Amino acid sequence: MTPPCHTFPASQLPLEIQINLDGKKRKTEKGKDIDLRACELLSLLQYSCQVDHPNQRDSRVRCYPVERWFRRCNDKKGTFMVETTAWESQETPTATPTDAQAKHRTTTHWHDGNKTDYFPSD
To answer: Cross-referenced Pfam families, in alphabetical order (predicted)?
Structure first.
């Protein structure tokens, strides 16, 4: 079993990153607080897949992209990574319906996602 994980609202992330895993304030070169917006933004695209009818051998598998966002920040000890997916969605305007639809197109087979026209322009 994994140890309990400290949870907090996404809005508190800029404050939470000021403290390291040992519970001590992170130190920076200039002695200032870490500005989360100034940290390098990175993304990771993963897929969530579901089998339509698990008991049928030839059942369709539907996969949906799930984009996760991270920030790489610096303190005196080096760099550390923070997942900012929930925080980034609060910081950016709401996606338009066409954007949401484009991200949730399905494929009929896993290898269809390798085609260059998988996300055709509308």
So the answer is: Mitochondr_Som1
CB atoms within 10 A of CB 112: 12
Q: 110 is written with which tokens? A: 């896993």
Separation of alpha carbons 29 and 32, rounded Å: 8
CA distances to 6, 7, 24, 57 from 66, in Å: 23, 21, 33, 26
Q: What is the pLDDT of residue 59?
A: 94
pTM of the model: 0.64
Q: Using CA atoms, how far apart are residues 60 and 97, in angstroms rounded to an integer?
A: 26
Per-residue pLDDT tens over the stretch 72-91:
999 999 999 999 999 998 87
Distance CA 94, CA 89 (A): 8
